[in-house]
């Protein structure tokens, strides 16, 4: 690795679209693992737009992310929930559903759980 890694999400190493054109995940590979920038469109819900891709009952990725814009509701399998918004850091354990709140896209940077997120089963 060189001393400086310089990449742009505009020319991501990989892009994974969500079902029904409800957003996408752009991935950049780094020496410390992948970093993802996700855009979740209004109406997006994990159980509707990523579950068919992931093939699991709930999201099994652990996330450490930063919300740039928009709002999202996250509900753990045990019922614990939180609504997150711009300027907030969030850490979410595996076993959850989530959806966009309101009519603005939720844009989130994720540097822990994006490597396998929205990756088609068997890939």
- What is the structural class? mainly beta
The tally of structural domains comes to 1
Query: Got a strand count?
Result: 9
Order of helices and strands: EEEHHEEEEEE
Residue-averaged pLDDT:
95
What would your notes on this structure say?
The chain is mainly beta. The chain has a single domain, classed as Jelly Rolls (Sandwich). It has helices spanning 46-49, 51-54; strands at residues 14-17, 23-28, 35-40, 63-69, 71-76, 81-84, 89-92, 96-101, 106-110. A hairpin with a 4-residue loop joins β5 (71-76) and β6. It is globular, with a radius of gyration of 14 Å. The two termini are 26 Å apart. The model has no long low-confidence stretch (mean pLDDT 95).
Draw up the topology in text.
Elements: E1 14-17, E2 23-28, E3 35-40, H1 46-49, H2 51-54, E4 63-69, E5 71-76, E6 81-84, E7 89-92, E8 96-101, E9 106-110
Quick summary:
With 123 residues, the chain is mostly beta strands. Helix content is 7%, strand content 39%. A 6-stranded antiparallel sheet has the order 1-2-3-9-4-7, with no helix packed on it. A 3-stranded antiparallel sheet has the order 6-5-8, with no helix packed on it.
Keywords:
9 strands; three-stranded antiparallel sheet; mainly beta; Jelly Rolls; 123 residues
């Amino acid at each position: 690795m060189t001393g400086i890694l310089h990449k742009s999400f505009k020319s991501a190493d990989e892009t994974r679209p969500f079902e029904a054109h409800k957003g996408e995940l752009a991935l950049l590979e780094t020496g410390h693992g992948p970093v993802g920038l996700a855009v979740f469109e209004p109406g997006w819900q994990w159980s509707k737009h990523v579950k068919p891709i992931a093939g699991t009952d709930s999201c099994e990725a652990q996330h450490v992310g930063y919300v740039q814009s928009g709002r999202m509701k996250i509900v753990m399998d045990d019922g614990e929930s939180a609504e997150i918004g711009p300027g907030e850091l969030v850490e979410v354990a595996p076993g959850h559903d989530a959806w966009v709140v309101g009519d603005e896209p939720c844009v989130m940077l994720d540097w822990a759980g994006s490597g396998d997120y929205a990756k088609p089963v068997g890939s």
